[in-house]
Amino acid sequence: MRTKSFQLLNHTIIVKDYPIAPDADVYGIADYKDNEIRLYTDGVNPSVIDHTFHHELVHFLFHYAGRDDLAEDETLVDTIGGLLAQYEQTKQ
Protein backbone atom coordinates (compact mmCIF):
# COMPACT_ATOMS: atom_id res chain seq x y z
CA MET A 1 0.00 0.00 0.00
CA ARG A 2 1.40 3.38 -1.07
CA THR A 3 0.87 6.38 1.20
CA LYS A 4 1.21 10.02 0.13
CA SER A 5 0.20 13.29 1.72
CA PHE A 6 -0.35 16.97 0.97
CA GLN A 7 -1.42 20.11 2.85
CA LEU A 8 -4.64 22.13 2.60
CA LEU A 9 -5.05 25.09 4.96
CA ASN A 10 -2.54 23.56 7.38
CA HIS A 11 -4.34 20.21 7.39
CA THR A 12 -2.35 17.16 6.32
CA ILE A 13 -4.39 15.00 3.95
CA ILE A 14 -3.16 11.41 3.72
CA VAL A 15 -3.71 9.49 0.47
CA LYS A 16 -3.76 5.71 0.87
CA ASP A 17 -4.16 2.94 -1.67
CA TYR A 18 -6.28 0.01 -0.56
CA PRO A 19 -6.58 -3.16 -2.62
CA ILE A 20 -10.25 -3.94 -2.05
CA ALA A 21 -13.22 -1.56 -2.19
CA PRO A 22 -15.99 -1.85 0.41
CA ASP A 23 -18.51 -1.52 -2.44
CA ALA A 24 -18.04 -2.74 -6.01
CA ASP A 25 -19.04 0.66 -7.44
CA VAL A 26 -16.70 2.73 -5.24
CA TYR A 27 -13.17 3.65 -6.36
CA GLY A 28 -12.39 6.16 -3.63
CA ILE A 29 -13.60 8.00 -0.55
CA ALA A 30 -12.90 11.46 0.90
CA ASP A 31 -12.92 11.03 4.69
CA TYR A 32 -12.94 14.54 6.18
CA LYS A 33 -12.93 13.30 9.79
CA ASP A 34 -9.64 11.44 9.32
CA ASN A 35 -8.27 13.81 6.63
CA GLU A 36 -7.79 10.81 4.38
CA ILE A 37 -8.38 9.98 0.73
CA ARG A 38 -8.78 6.25 0.23
CA LEU A 39 -8.23 4.86 -3.26
CA TYR A 40 -9.38 1.32 -4.00
CA THR A 41 -6.97 -0.02 -6.59
CA ASP A 42 -7.33 -3.80 -7.04
CA GLY A 43 -7.89 -4.48 -10.74
CA VAL A 44 -8.65 -0.81 -11.45
CA ASN A 45 -7.19 0.88 -14.52
CA PRO A 46 -4.51 3.46 -13.52
CA SER A 47 -6.35 6.23 -15.39
CA VAL A 48 -9.46 5.52 -13.29
CA ILE A 49 -7.38 5.65 -10.11
CA ASP A 50 -5.91 8.99 -11.20
CA HIS A 51 -9.35 10.42 -12.03
CA THR A 52 -10.66 9.14 -8.69
CA PHE A 53 -7.81 10.83 -6.79
CA HIS A 54 -8.64 14.17 -8.43
CA HIS A 55 -12.36 13.65 -7.76
CA GLU A 56 -11.68 13.08 -4.05
CA LEU A 57 -9.25 16.03 -4.02
CA VAL A 58 -12.03 18.32 -5.27
CA HIS A 59 -14.25 17.12 -2.40
CA PHE A 60 -11.51 18.26 0.01
CA LEU A 61 -10.93 21.56 -1.81
CA PHE A 62 -14.61 22.50 -1.55
CA HIS A 63 -14.82 21.22 2.04
CA TYR A 64 -11.90 23.32 3.25
CA ALA A 65 -13.14 26.30 1.22
CA GLY A 66 -16.27 26.15 3.40
CA ARG A 67 -18.46 25.02 0.51
CA ASP A 68 -19.78 21.65 1.59
CA ASP A 69 -22.84 22.40 -0.55
CA LEU A 70 -20.57 22.15 -3.60
CA ALA A 71 -18.60 19.23 -2.13
CA GLU A 72 -21.86 17.25 -2.10
CA ASP A 73 -22.57 17.93 -5.79
CA GLU A 74 -21.16 14.72 -7.30
CA THR A 75 -21.62 15.88 -10.90
CA LEU A 76 -19.72 19.11 -10.29
CA VAL A 77 -17.02 17.35 -8.25
CA ASP A 78 -16.55 14.66 -10.91
CA THR A 79 -16.39 17.19 -13.74
CA ILE A 80 -13.81 19.39 -12.01
CA GLY A 81 -11.88 16.31 -10.86
CA GLY A 82 -11.77 15.07 -14.45
CA LEU A 83 -10.61 18.46 -15.70
CA LEU A 84 -7.82 18.57 -13.09
CA ALA A 85 -6.75 15.02 -13.97
CA GLN A 86 -6.61 15.91 -17.67
CA TYR A 87 -4.64 19.06 -16.92
CA GLU A 88 -2.10 17.08 -14.88
CA GLN A 89 -1.78 14.41 -17.58
CA THR A 90 -1.38 16.78 -20.51
CA LYS A 91 0.53 19.81 -19.20
CA GLN A 92 3.80 20.47 -20.98
Describe it.
Strands 1-2-4-3 form a four-stranded mixed β-sheet, covered by helices on one side. It has helices spanning 46-64, 68-71, 74-90; strands at residues 3-8, 11-18, 28-31, 36-40. It is built from three helices and four strands. α1 packs across α3. The protein has one domain. It is an alpha+beta fold and 92 residues long. The protein is globular, with a radius of gyration of 13 Å.
Rounded to an integer in angstroms, the radius of gyration calculated over CA atoms is 13 Å
The pLDDT mean sits at 91
Low-confidence stretches: none
How large a portion of the residues is in β-strands, by DSSP E? 25-35%
In terms of structural class, how would the helical and strand content be classed?
alpha+beta
Task: Give the % helix.
Answer: 40-55%
Number of strand elements: 4
Number of helices: 3
Query: What pattern of helices and strands is seen along the backbone?
Result: EEEEHHH
Main β sheet profile: 4 strands, mixed
